[in-house]
Amino acid sequence: MTLLIDNVGELVTNDVAIGRGPLGILTDGALVVGDDGRIAWVGLRSAAPDADQRLDADGHAVIPGFVDSHAHLVFAGDRAAEFAARMAGEPYTGGGIRTTVAATRAASDDTLRANVARLRREMLRQGTTTVEIKSGYGLSVADETRSLAVAREFTDETTFLGAHVVPADTDADTYTSLVCGKMLDGAAPFARWIDVFCERGAFDVDQSRAVLTAGIAAGLGARIHANQLTPGDGVRLAVELGAASADHCTHLSPADIDALGGAPADGTTGTVATLLPGAEFSTRSGYPDARALVDAGATVALATDCNPGSSYTSAMPFCIALAVREMRMTPAEALWSATLGGARALRRTDIGHLGVGARANVAILDAPSHLHLAYRPGVPLVHTVLLDGEPT
To answer: What is the pTM of this model?
Structure first.
């Protein structure tokens, strides 16, 4: 069955060949979803072909579904008390990760599965049609493997993050060897990506290089948690290894910005700077300088970093509002980064836009323009979501 989405007030295609401006906007546009769940036609409403069914957008804005390229959804328990302590003035150090590790190891597969399902439903209701899910709260061969097996039930974009922190009962070099060996062997069949927390108190640049190169040799793509808590070498390591993304990018030097600006991502190559403003909001930290990255020519993505400790939000619209208010992005830049930017961070060309051939992952807003995503923060503006052309 084909579907015509008609009477669209503002259609954001993210295809500059279709519409105006960087978002490829069509006013009074329409699109047709083919029976394969992909966009078969897009253009002005007056020229729309016939279809088997019609969905009236009632003059509202239609945008690509959000692409959340950084999320930690496989966990048990929460860290609400830790959040309260931070709001009372205690600094964030990342040490609470081990609290979640203990709860996750003690949880059953069904408990973990139910929590991922709950969060995935939250995301879908808010317009997120593609999500990347990391492991990282198991930190043993068995628990990292089962975490990724659970994640794979919900997405193909799964990331092995065994190198999240060093467990208390070992040292960094010994644990790095385990991650690069038996743990990688167990995790690789369930993962598309490998990641490492390159940070003081976690893994240094040499250990991070060892983890990523082992993952690349095993056929996984590279991503990296870089420069979140302190300045460091993570961003330049990402560019050196051709990682798909360097995530957080909170503490950047001019050389880091130049490196990312010199390696913009096009969907198949380059390194995306993935910014996670929910983490800065939740840890009461300074925000990344998105304006400097955009002006340097870097490809920027926005993602939620949904996790129980430092960013317990599943809302991409909230992250868009933060990016505009706190990181000096324009509303158009923020929406692009939350859709096509996220797709490029996952090296996907079939999502994040509404051009012909793309997956029909669509969000219809209860608003006339994409501007309302930043203009009306906290308001549930996503009215209807289509996943591969099917209402969710």
So the answer is: 0.97
